[in-house]
Specification:
This protein has 306 residues and is mostly beta strands. The protein has helices at 10-13, 84-96, 291-304, and strands spanning 8-9, 20-23, 26-27, 29-30, 41-45, 58-63, 77-80, 107-108, 113-114, 119-120, 125-127, 132-133, 138-139, 143-145, 150-151, 156-159, 164-166, 172-174, 180-183, 188-189, 194-196, 204-207, 212-213, 218-219, 224-225, 230-231, 236-237, 242-243, 248-249, 254-255, 260-261, 266-267, 272-273, 282-284, 289-290. A hairpin with a 4-residue loop joins strand 34 and strand 35 (289-290). The longest helix is centred in the last third of the chain and has 14 residues, at 291-304. It starts with 7 loop residues before the first strand and ends with a helix.
């Protein structure tokens, strides 16, 4: 199979890394333990709450010794480390040092208005027709911007993700960004907004058709935003969150990572969302709850204070 080219032995990758190889195993890619992927992959486990959530395609793992005997039986390769996440980040960087990178010359469509004061990477960018890119916009590699989009000044498209690990000694190691950013047709992104790049090779930060993202927003790595979504100024969307069609996210709202916001839902201004939001639901508050319950609590508190 073509994927055989990418298979690696855990023993080869961890050579020279602090820790102890318990059993060897084979893997194709690296990702988080709960990732919804089909290939055999290497991951890490630092928090035992994820033990029951480990994907059945995890073939190799880095973990602390005390969790070793609790691992699922399908995991073949085990490497013991006192700092699994930091070790995983170091190995990810090591694995990608020799990766062959594709360099396709950037392609820009017809009737585009791209400011001479904007930066567009020379390789691996695809820009469709009738796209406007204002001064001081940065468009990094592995970005696709489709027809009719407008990117306003000082925005960054495909920026580095915030995916750091801290060692016991306080040293930092981030994950290399290998993913993509795709902006569908007729999207408008206001000034000073940051759209993070996906981390993994198959990781896409995605903005659906006709969506609008206001000024000074942050869209984390691997976020998927549906069609006709409105995200107001100052909103923060954590990595790998999925937002369905026609959602409204209010001013300065915060949506945590790896959540799902259902179709037609509304996140009120200033809300802090830490749980999935069902479709056609309004949530309010910190931490956000269904809007009707929030109002009832306010009324009840007011009555008790009289």
């Amino acid at each position: 199979a073509a994927s055989d080219v990418y298979k690696r032995q855990l023993s080869e990758l961890v050579e020279g890394i602090d820790g102890k190889l318990i059993t060897d195993g084979e893997f194709e890619i690296m990702n988080y333990c709960t990732a919804d992927i089909k290939k055999n992959f290497l991951t890490f486990l630092e928090n035992p709450k994820f033990l029951k959530k480990i994907n059945s395609n995890v073939s190799c793992i880095i973990c602390k010794e005390e969790y070793m005997n609790q691992l699922p039986k399908h995991i073949k390769g085990i490497f013991i480390s006192e700092e699994p996440k930091y070790c995983f980040h170091k190995l990810f960087h090591k694995m990608n040092q020799n990766r062959v990178k594709e360099n396709n010359k950037t392609c820009i469509g017809r009737n585009c208005a791209i400011s001479s004061m904007a930066f567009v990477a020379k390789n691996n960018v695809v820009i469709g027709d009738n796209v406007t890119i204002e001064p001081f916009v940065v468009v990094n590699e592995n970005v696709t911007i489709k027809n009719g989009c407008t990117i306003h000044s000082n925005s960054v498209i495909g920026g580095r993700s915030f995916s750091e690990a801290r060692s016991i000694k306080g040293e930092m190691c981030g994950l290399d960004n290998m993913g993509h950013t795709v902006i569908e047709e007729n999207v408008e992104i206001m000034s000073q907004t940051h759209i993070a790049q996906g981390i993994w090779e198959d990781d896409i930060t995605y903005i659906g058709k006709n969506s609008r993202i206001d000024a000074m927003c942050h869209i984390g790595h691997g976020v998927s935003i549906g069609n006709s979504v409105l995200i107001a100024a100052g909103a923060i969307i954590g990595g790998n969150t999925k937002i369905d069609n026609n959602v409204w996210v209010g001013i300065n709202a915060t949506v945590s990572n790896r959540l799902k916001i259902g179709e037609n839902a509304r996140v009120s201004l200033g809300a802090v969302v830490t749980k999935n939001v069902e479709k056609n639901t309004i949530v309010t508050g910190n931490f956000a709850i269904e809007h009707r319950r929030f109002i009832e609590q306010i009324k009840a508190n007011s009555t008790r204070g009289m």
